[in-house]
Amino acid sequence: MREFIVEADGGSRGNPGPAGYGCVVLDAATGQTLVETYEYLGIVTNNVAEYRGLLAGLRAAHDLDPSARVHVRMDSKLVVEQMSGRWKIKHPDMKPLALEAGRVFPPGRVTYEWIPREQNKHADRLANEAMDSGASASSVRKLSPAAETPTADAGRLSAAAGKRSAAAETSAPAGGKPSTAVGRLSVPAETPTASAETPTAAAGKPSAAAGKRSAAAETSAPAGGKPSTAVGRLSVPAETPTAAAGKPTAAAGKPSAAAGKRSAAAETSAPAGGKPSTAVGRLSVPAETPTASAETPTAAAGKPTAAAGKPTAAAETSAPPAEKPTTSAGRLSAAGAQADVRAAKAVASPGWAPADMGAPATFVLLRHGETPLTPQKRFSGSGGTDPSLSEIGREQARRAAEALAARGTIQHILASPLARTRETAAAVADRLGIEVTVEDGLIETDFGAWEGLTFGEVRERYPDDLTKWLADPEAEPTGGGESFAATATRIAATRDRLVAAYAGRTVLLVTHVTPIKTFVRLALGAPPESLFRMELSAASMSVVAYYADGNASVRLLNDTSYLRP
Prior knowledge:
The protein is of the alpha/beta class. Among the domains are: 3-187, Nucleotidyltransferase, domain 5; 354-563, Rossmann fold (3-Layer(aba) Sandwich), CATH 3.40.50. 27% of the residues lie in helices and 18% in strands. It has helices at 46-64, 77-83, 95-102, 121-133, 159-163, 250-253, 257-260, 334-348, 391-407, 419-432, 455-461, 463-471, 484-501, 513-524, and strands at residues 3-12, 17-27, 33-44, 69-74, 110-114, 139-143, 181-185, 218-220, 228-231, 234-237, 361-367, 412-415, 436-438, 506-511, 541-546, 552-559.
């Protein structure tokens, strides 16, 4: 079951006076903007405008997926409390709007949350655009290709997509001039594709998402069987993924033991070619395949090199796939990748959960940017020199801040006390205008005598201790460092405390490799050795949501798409 966030606002200059609303629908898993809508309403009150914004947002979410769950965020205390059933609705102009809003989705499928005005800037901006434009303002809708819900058959467009017209949402404001919904297709610069590290079979199966376009587009199926989109008078056939895109070799799907033995805490650099890898949620394949290195398994038949056959705790570089999905002029199949993303979201959605469980505590886990030790693949925990970010790391932090600003859902920022995490958090805080709280429970593991050493140096100096550490989560690094078991106990306690403190909120946790992998491992109920089987790049983003009944869902892992130039 999909989950959407609706942010809505309305305003009136005079109350009553010239009024308008704005609303935006976001994907709850990724923060991606799916729909924007605004409309000039004529002369109405502020509260009526707010209700009209809510109604438009719910309808837009229903158009995307009638079976979805929706979490509404508004800065109108009146609307939130009334729609939550805690306050009575007395005003005659608002009663019918509230009843209409309550009928868009079945009872229990929509939850409401009040947020401060500064956290509702997106919808507020749209409402002001409507009022600024006056009677000439249209209800503008932007849909991304991922906004549509696919059908099972790639060649068939859904009935809902086919029945929408360019004037789908016509309303008559008080001024007497009806405004028309104008559908605009928003195509991202890069089309998401299957994970660079593990292409799945789904990557080669075209889905209806490839054939779907915005509400304004008329769709036809030519004799060749490929859905085409009418753009003016130009018929553009939908791209069909190549056969090779969906056929990874067996080696690509079966990571070797050597590839699995990577440290949960080691520093990571971008693979050769400078293209950081991404994972679930926003899946894409780098334009260049990382070249093999002494510590990276080669792509040839999936067989690691001799050097790669030895477990590397410090190496966090991803193994390139045994067979790279075929592209055409750098364009990858959107259909298969979106199918992977939808599958991941379906697994993450708590469809079995009670309807009254409310919004989860959502932790956006951001790893700090690079330090001088990162490209050298040296152990860098809490017991070492506490390095600051490098110039590359500061640029990574800046790009992460821009991505989080675009996401628009962060309400609090917490950071590990180490310099590299505080610097990364500060870059985000400056961009979002949110203060940073230092959280000691997010600190990196202490690697004892191994701090500052490469994996090879540790293997030469402390071979027995390293062997025990790789095999037993209770084993400590040489010199009395922190074991992975002790780290897990610490992170679990920190998680429980933060989930209770930030119930229903979205919190950015700026931390390190081991804590982030541990959050993910505990959410999945995975064994300790899974720490060695996760890729986590510098300045990467992961997301875990925690529900009131104790369940958790991993919604994103190792996203670095925003780091690309």
